[in-house]
Each structure stands twice: as C-alpha cells, then as structure tokens.
C-alpha cells in the first residue's frame, strides 16, 4: 500500500480492473469529477476503455499487466468479482500500488458457499443451503432441504446461468450429472414476496452510507425492472438497510457492497452479494442526489460520502441484446422521449446480454407506472 495519501483528488488516476458497463459508469462519474481513468480488460475498445485515458489489454490475472495498471493509477478498483483474486493479492502485497478494497471481498463473493457462510457469520438468514460437492452430500442435502430447490454452481454464475431448478426426484439424475462437472451448492427455493437490494458504500475513512431500498423484478433469472421507492414496510426497509451497513462493517469492506435479498413477510434473507456497484442501482444516476458510481469513487478515494436520497420516483428497464432496437425506437417518440437512455457501447447486441438500461423518472408515481406499463406492452421476449 504505497500511495495511501488520502483523500485522493482529481486529477489523480483511477484504475479499473474490468472493462464492462459498471467500469464505464464508474469512469463517467469519475471523469465528471476530473479524475483520469486507466482500465485493464482483455478485449480492445471495451465499454470502459471508450471512456479511459489508458487502456491495457491483457488477462485480469496477467501479473505484468496488473502491475502496470497499479503503477499508472493512484488508486485501483474492480468492476466485477469474477477476477482471480490470487494474482491481485500477490501484486498488492508486493507493494505495487493502492487497492483499498483489497482482495478479500473477491474471495468471499466469488464463491456462493463462502458468501452464504459470511452472511450467517454476520448473524443473518439465507435460504437453506448445503455444499453438494459429492453424490452422498447431494443426496443428504436433498433429504434435508427437499424440493423445490435450486442447484447452483459455486462460482462463475451470473444472470441465472449455472442454475438448475429441481422440482422433484425426476430431476435428480440431471443434478447428479451436473455435480460431476462443477462444484455446486444446493439451495432451498424461497417462496419470497419480493426481491429487493441494498447498496451500501463505506469509505476508506470508515464512513458508511446506505442507499434507499431498490425493488427488483427478474425475468428468466435476469434483472428486468428496478423500482424506487420500493413498496416495502418501514420495518423491512429499516431492517434491510441496517443489515447492509452492519455487514459492510463486520466484513471490514471498503467501496461498494450490493446485497440482493428476499423479503418473506417482514423477514429478510440474504441471497447474493457483490463488492461493487450493481445493476439494480443504475437508476441512482437519474433518480437520486448521488449515483452509486459517484459514491463508489468517493469511498475508494477517501472523500466524504453523500447521504443518498430519492429525488424522483423511478423505474429502470434493463435492456438486453434483444431489447435494444425496440427501446431505441420507442425512445425517439414523444411518449417515451423523456426516458433516460444509457447504452453501454457494446460492439454487438447479443441475446440475454446486458447492453443498456432506460430509466423513467416521474414525480407522479401513477403516471410513471402508466408509462412503464405501456412501454412494456410490446417489449420483445
Ligand atoms: P445475478 O445476475 O444477480 O448475479 P445469479 O445468476 O448470480 O444472478 P441469483 O441471484 O442467485 O443468480 O439468482 C437469480 C434469480 O433467481 C434471483 O434473483 C431469484 O429471482 C431467483 N432465485 C435464486 N435463488 C433462489 C432461491 N433460493 N429461492 C427462490 N428464488 C431464487
Ligand atoms: Mg442475483
């Protein structure tokens, strides 16, 4: 940790590991404040590289490239958690640069078992779960957890990939096949009332600020809509925000933590965590007094955090490859023209891959709902 003179202010350079849309939106927020941007991403001209001053194209665990990124940057962050943490640990411990978040959040959130264990260790509930790395363990787990349940790969899954729903014993042969090829966790299916998420930021100074609750609707395991304010009771909202702030402090994390939760009655179960800004927080750009991306930059730079509040009720519609043409066409019409369009500069529109989002804001919540409902009538599947 060589360059820890805080706070880190513009025109310092922020290095980002990962070149996707989260890095891009971090970079846009940082640039607005006057920071320079460097990015490490294997492919050229990534969504983040389009906003960066320095582009390094190499594998995330290429040690020479990581050292170069740390060397040209005053502070380094990551935009997704599936980067090999061993290489990062090594270069940071060798004193090459400043990564205030450290490698520990990656280690926890890259692995669904460690992630759930961390939630339990902090005193919170999750879906019933078990390590099912062997046939015996799977059979025991099914005995205990029962059906319906979900088999998930322990690592590498996102957007519902690497998941198998087990409805009855008819699905057991496939499950036994799956665990031969990948380390898996079995989760009991939670009949939740709602899905919500909470985004919390913690600065290098220890200051913690939590965003208001986001209400999420998924389609085919992929986030479809996020709505604020969330339609949850004050009890649930307070519990969820307190949980997020508490986990952030107990795990001693810096930067941003997003926690996906299931709401069951007045209870909350932790589903997943991500040590970074999150898809459900994109509407903070247009609907809150501070975006999750600006807050993240403030946190890693040791600047004061802003107390986030909702300025306008809003709904974010996630745009996947198959939605982009439709959305851009509608957005050119007066009915939807005031929607805030965010396209990520991806070189192709691939089915089921996130290519952008469109946020509708309206102080009249009923009018907002009418606009979104109408926009979704012909939304492609
Ligand atoms: P993400 O894109 O958020 O990273 P992911 O592929 O890592 O997604 P999860 O968040 O675990 O996966 O699951 C995706 C969705 O599937 C959840 O948002 C939820 O709707 C549903 N789901 C997952 N686990 C459970 C469960 N145990 N009980 C009920 N529904 C579940
Ligand atoms: Mg999830």
3D structure, described in words:
The protein is α+β, with helices and mostly antiparallel strands and about 375 residues long. Helices cover about 30% and strands about 25% of the residues. It is built from twelve helices and 17 strands. The protein has helices at about 20-35, 65-70, 85-95, 105-110, 110-120, 135-145, 170-180, 235-250, 285, 290-300, 325-330, 365-375, and strands spanning about 15, 35-40, 55, 75-80, 130, 150-155, 165, 185-190, 195-200, 210, 215-220, 220-230, 255-265, 265-275, 315-320, 340-345, 355-360. Strands 9, 10, 11, 12, 13, 14, 15, 16 and 17 form a nine-stranded antiparallel β-sheet that branches. Helix 1 packs across helix 10 (about 290-300). Adenosine-5'-triphosphate binds near residues 150, 158, 161, 260 and 272.
Low-confidence stretches: none
Distance between the termini: 48 Å
Largest sheet: 9 strands, antiparallel
The assembly state of the depicted protein chains is: single chain
Per DSSP E runs of 2 or more residues, the count of β-strands stands at 17
- Helical element count? 12
Q: Describe the global form.
A: globular
Q: Specify Rg, calculated over alpha carbons.
A: 21 Å
Sheet-strand content, in percent, reads: 25-35%
Supply database-style keywords.
single chain, 381 residues, alpha+beta, nine-stranded antiparallel β-sheet, four-stranded parallel β-sheet, 17 strands, 31% helix, globular, binds adenosine-5'-triphosphate, binds magnesium ion
